[in-house]
Specification:
The complex is a heterodimer of chains A (425) and B (142). By secondary structure, chain A is an alpha+beta fold. Chain A has eight helices and 26 strands. In chain A, helix 2 crosses helix 3. The longest helix of chain A is centred in the first third of the chain and has 16 residues. Chain A is elongated, with a radius of gyration of 26 Å. Helices cover 22% and strands 1% of the residues of chain B. Chain B contains three helices and one strand. Chain B is elongated. At the A-B interface, strand 4, helix 3, helix 4, strand 8 and strand 9 of A face strand 1 of B. Strand 4 of chain A pairs parallel with strand 1 of chain B, so a sheet runs across the interface.
């Protein structure tokens, strides 16, 4: 009786955004609670393994959608959005009976119940035998979110189980399908930068590589430009990848890179940190034994703090610091602000289309080697600064002019938050 | 319980009693196609051999098999493969918990977001061979 009443649970928070694809949005709220029900644990895997695999499955969907998933072991059952459980034959009050090992291995109900056939041999991701519980869970959660089956090669929503290496991931089309229901992931960045690495190739030549990083709050993503997505498994907590810098809310990053200098600085509040790229940690003191972090006002005379953002212009050898509606041009050779600064941001970086300008409080200024351009991020949008190539094509463009704003999620794809409880997986 | 001996349960021996009935004949195949939304459930006296052949043909083409409409070994093999219990979009019978309201069209075509381009050709990316310009490192698995 309890389960029957649940089926009649009002579809609050569930809407339908029908499309021709047969896919329909199932939830309208952004944080969804899930639970492996007490009577539904499998005897084949340890409880911890089962819950970890489900947590990972939900995390994989949260890495590509604006949805967060949180395991909830305490709230009343009616408040749990997605319930999972194992059973054999007639199981968990479900009207659809399992058929024993072989053929049907799981099913999902639109109202958020997912059942796994205990007669199947479910195995952890690393195993190369049996049926991967992770893969099946990701598939069934896809149903719960509103995705139907597809026969498209490579899709996780194919009806038949396709044995695959442990490293299966949600591909471009599956991502776009679910984002068609729930929208793309939006949001600004505290700071964004391309990290330069110097390596020697097999001929001993020095190769310079860059990696794109986006920071937000206490986590960050590596963005793989060539794959149009973040690294699988991101975001990651800042202290895990970056050592000795503040664990959250970084204001700015600057890389002073000349023939003689290669210095990287992180800024937060009224302090800054010098980062040692060889040792991959922040310096604790300078050559004279002075401690880091230092005061911005001492290291960069005339520069206010806290900062909104900053970037280094390699050609002019200037650091542009931004605060409010002002921009400060700092000469790194003479270690001082240029005389004519500070200026209004709009005077230094004019709007190409009238009034289409961030004006103040820029979240992050980012020079991208992938696009050979500077971008100003603010909210869910970015403004691209006119570069040399733009000027060659349109000489009338003002130097440092800002093109009209565009959606960040339309250029950097699937940069999605995950629930803080699943950050450290 | 399902018998095992190893600490990590990796040597589980599925019970022979609880095996799914293999789909090996016409009736079982009719049941399979009905269960997963390829045809309406067969009723006694149903004149539907043509409808059954058409459903088999549709199932075969979706699974990239020769669409003969005949119940051959390859088709039976696919029918017996492990799969999700949710019906396929073609003629889905609204199994997913809430019966489809009357008059709402069946999602005929298999869901195929081909319309979503994959802009790999990102503007501005240099060729890998230009050593003067910093290059991104190779992608790594999770």
């Amino acid at each position: 009786a309890k389960r029957f009443l649940q089926l009649l649970r009002p579809l609050v928070g569930r809407e339908e955004a029908s499309g021709d694809s047969g896919a329909t949005r199932a939830f309208s709220k952004r944080t969804l609670k899930w639970r492996l029900v007490g009577e539904g644990y499998s005897s084949q895997l340890s409880a911890g393994e089962q819950r970890y695999i489900f947590r990972l499955a939900f995390r994989m969907w949260s890495e590509v959608t604006p949805l967060d998933f949180e395991e909830d072991l305490t709230s009343p059952g009616a408040q749990i959005d997605i319930k999972l459980g194992f059973g054999r034959g007639r199981h968990l009050g479900c009207p659809r009976v399992f058929d024993g090992s072989g053929q049907e291995f799981a099913h999902a109900w639109r109202l958020g119940d997912v059942h796994f056939d205990e007669d199947e041999h479910f195995t952890p991701p690393a195993s190369d035998t049996g049926i991967s519980l992770l893969r099946v869970a990701v598939h069934e959660i896809g149903h719960v979110l509103g995705l139907p089956h597809t026969y498209r090669t490579g899709s996780v929503m194919q009806p038949n189980y396709i044995p695959q290496g442990p490293a299966f991931e949600l591909d471009w089309s599956d991502r776009k399908a679910v984002q068609k229901l729930y929208g793309p992931c939006e949001g600004s960045f505290d700071t964004a930068f391309d990290w330069i690495r110097k390596e020697r190739n097999q001929y001993g030549e020095v190769m310079v590589r860059f990696s794109t990083y986006f920071f937000r709050k206490s986590w960050y993503w590596l963005y793989e430009n060539r794959n149009n997505r973040t690294r699988y498994g991101d975001p990651i907590q800042i202290p895990i990848g970056w050592h000795g810098i503040p664990a959250q809310n970084i204001d700015a990053f600057v890389h002073i890179w000349t023939w003689r200098r290669d210095e990287r600085y992180f800024f937060k509040g009224n302090q800054y940190w010098w980062y040692d790229s060889d040792k991959d940690q922040a310096h604790t003191e300078d050559e004279q034994g002075n401690r880091y972090p230092k005061l911005i006002s001492e290291g960069f005379p005339g520069i206010p703090s806290p900062l909104d953002t900053a970037f280094y212009d390699r050609r002019k050898r200037l650091i542009y610091f931004f605060k409010g509606s002002l921009v400060f041009a700092f000469d790194v050779e003479r270690n001082q602000v240029l005389n004519s600064y500070p200026k209004k941001i709009i005077d230094v970086f004019p709007a190409i289309a009238s009034q289409n300008h961030p004006f103040r409080n820029i979240d992050s200024a980012y020079y991208s080697y992938a696009h050979n351009s500077i971008f100003f991020f603010k909210g869910n949008a970015y403004w691209k600064v006119v570069n040399d190539k733009d000027k060659q094509h349109n000489s009338w463009l003002p130097s440092n002019g800002l093109f009209p704003k565009e959606s960040t999620s339309g250029k950097w794809f699937d940069v999605c938050d995950v629930h803080t409880s699943t950050l450290s997986m | 319980e399902t018998l095992f001996h190893g600490r990590d349960h990796s040597d589980l021996e599925p019970s022979l009693l609880r095996q799914a009935q293999p789909i090996a004949d016409l009736r079982a195949a009719q049941g399979f196609l009905a269960k997963y939304g390829w045809t309406a459930a067969p009723r006694p006296g149903d004149p539907g051999p043509r409808a059954f052949a058409e459903a088999v043909r549709a199932f075969q083409s979706a699974n990239r098999l020769p669409a003969t409409g005949a119940l051959d070994a390859a088709t039976l093999r696919v029918m017996n493969r492990p799969r999700c219990g949710v019906p396929d979009p073609r003629g889905a019978s609204g199994f997913q918990g809430v019966p489809r309201p009357r008059g709402v069209p069946d999602p005929q075509g298999a869901f195929d977001p081909r319309g979503v381009p994959d802009p790999r050709g990102n503007p501005g990316l240099r060729s890998d061979r230009d050593p003067r310009v910093p290059q991104p490192p190779p992608a790594r698995a999770r």
